[in-house]
Amino acid sequence: MGKTTLLHLLGGLIKPKTGEIIIDGQDITSLSSKNIDQYRGQNIGIVFQKPHFIASINILSNLLLTQKLAGRKQDKNEILAILENLEIKHRAYAKPNTLSQGELQRASVARAVLNKPKVILADEPTSALDDQSCEQVIQLLQKTAVDLDAALLIVTHDGRLKDIVNHQILLG
């Protein structure tokens, strides 16, 4: 099994052929498609390897939509605070196609932590980032995980993270 497949299983994006996946006491493999989507929106934050945003609306609107789809109150100030922490607040009203790869990756991190998930899954969250942005993103992910008492799982080939993360599992 590859790293992305592992994340897709844990995020409820695909179902395993056998077995269970228990997150915070909930067997996510037993949920219907509708219920897994709702569960994911409320409990799992995902940073995909390639950022996915609606191209026709700006970053702020994309993030407001994330809150709405999860059934949360839309909070522009909360979003702007997260974007400021990631040093991309000035890009809130920009459309995704005008952002650099690094800015898009940081916007993806903002989306993943926005709904205060119980689990944060990150697939190569720092691959498109310079060293300073890499450190900021990892610090935000770690701080958010601690603040929310959430599990954080990062899969990466980025050697810069080996001295930053607490626990490492190497897949061969």
From TrEMBL:
The keyword Translocase applies. It comes from the Bacteria. Keywords: ATP-binding, Nucleotide-binding, Translocase. Residues 1-172 form the ABC transporter domain. The keyword Translocase applies. GO terms for molecular function: ATP binding; ATP hydrolysis activity. This is ABC transporter domain-containing protein. It comes from Portibacter lacus.
